[in-house]
Amino acid sequence: MSRTLIRNANVVTVDPDLRDIDGADILIEDDRILEVGRGLSAGEAEVIEAEGMIAMPGFVNAHIHTWQTGLRGVAADWTIKEYLRAMHAGLAGHFGPDDIRIGNHIGALNQINSGTTTLADWCHNNPTPDHTDAAVDGLEASGIRAVFLHGSPKPDPKPGQKHFSEIPMPADEVHRLRNGRLSSDDGLVTLGLAVLGPQMSVWEVCEADFKLAHDLDLVASMHISAQQMMTDDGFQRLAAAGHLGSRANVVHGNALDDRTLSFLVEHGVQFTLTPEVELQMGFGDPLTCRLRRLGGAISLGSDVESDMTGDMFAVTRFALQAARHEDNLVVRAETGAAPDTITIPMREAIEWATMGGARMLGLENRIGSLTPGKQADIVLLDARQLNMHPVIDPVASILFHAGIGNVDTVMIGGKLRKWGGRLTDAPSAAQLDALAESGRRILADHAKSLG
Fold it and tell me: Where would one find the signal peptide in this protein (predicted)?
């Protein structure tokens, strides 16, 4: 048994009962938070002096395509149509297992470096078991907490092949993982499914994928990026089969009509929003304001690693300000003036980026807040730096002033993964070179294939 005491921090617990506690300590035993409060006894504990720092739960990045890390920047000028054509029907087919492994490894290390302690790795470029194992290898090597969401590729079919919309999730492969290396729900890396859903699959595939997730008690996450569904009544049929609920997750959903959105919220479906990518690629207005009015469950993700930074400070700030802007426009249209008061308090946004993601992944009893009994997934921000000092409201400091450069310490399950501003298991020069070479080769191979 080992104990660590984080002493004299400005603690933002994201726990509605504990709230914020300035000058507080966090006592950790092995992988769990034991106590949070002032003047805790250290005993034989290792002490981390945190005066001048803000302690917060690690961000939960609820939607990221980590496998694209080696192609950063290529999607910066793409719409969703261009992205689907160039990435999924093109570049994705040139990834080998080693490309997936190094992308996931370095991408996950970047998340840790940026203050994220849990990610939902939406892996839809795993055409073989070797690709899948390589993706999991990369996550495990980084030390991050992750839910590996097993997906399926979306290439153009060759003559005689079925379209991807007609191909169900490979059940044997999912069972291999569920009965093997990802069998535990208490591990650092656990299993979920990235399914096609009603928009991208025929009913038989949609039903099979959700039944597989239900039978194995896994989260089933789906992209909904357009109004037109391949299975028009898919959500109603899934609900009738008992497959909609808190273990179902819709990513995006911007184009959903009010009736369908209300139906999904009423059935407890979780939503993950990626506003920066959504606004660039043409999805429409983010769902944030509509979900708030309905009482829907909101989480946030950085999404396309080949397009946007995986920085959850930026993701959360952008999501909040975009939603405030949308509300402001409504008031201005009605009154001709700015609102009298702000419509969305900042504390909601930090909840989206922590507990919201935890709930989406079914991990709300383990992570997402600095609550005694939960996993010790803790981030310390150096608030003495010029961009943050002085701290008047620690939540305002986190959301509107902090950035990656303030992330001093990251602890995941009680283990230090970043300390004194440096990763404890930083990638080597050779690993960084391998990531860059992976991206160059994939781009070159794709260019050759186009003639």
Answer: none
Q: Is residue 360 a contact partner of residue 270, using CB atoms and an 8 Å limit? A: yes
Tell me the C-alpha distance between 340 and 353, whole Å. Answer: 27
Nearest-CA neighbor of 260 among 298, 221, 287, 220?
287
* Cα four-point dihedral sign 205, 211, 215, 220: positive
pLDDT (0 to 100) of residue 366: 98
* Alpha carbons 406 and 381: distance in angstroms, whole number: 5
How many angstroms separate the CA atoms of 296 and 304, rounded? 24
CB 12 within 8 Å of CB 394: yes
Helix, strand, coil % in the chain, rounded to nearest 5 = 40, 25, 40
Q: What is the pLDDT of residues 163-209, one digit of tens each?
A: 999 999 999 999 999 999 999 999 999 999 999 999 999 999 999 99
Looking at the DSSP assignment, which residues form a beta bridge with residue 220?
193, 248
Looking at domain 3-57+369-420, its CATH architecture is: Roll (2.30)
Within 13 Å of residue 117, how many CA atoms lie on the same side as its CB? 31
**Tell me: the pLDDT tens digits for 254-289?**
999 999 999 999 999 999 999 999 999 999 999 999
* CB proximity list for 248: less than 8 A, separation 6 or greater: 210, 219, 220, 221, 222, 238, 267, 268, 269, 270
Q: How many helices (H) and strands (E) does the chain have?
A: 15, 18
Backbone conformation region of residue 443, classed left if phi is above 0, alpha if psi is from -120 to 50, else beta: alpha
CATH number of this structure's domain 59-359: 3.20.20.140
Could you say which DSSP state residue 227 is in? S
Helix axis angle, 171-178 to 203-215, nearest 10°: 10
Domain locations along the chain: 3-57+369-420, 59-359
Structure tokens belonging to residue 446: 């794709």
The closest of 241, 251, 249, 185 to 217, measured between CA atoms, is 185
Q: Do domains 3-57+369-420 and 59-359 have the same CATH topology?
A: no
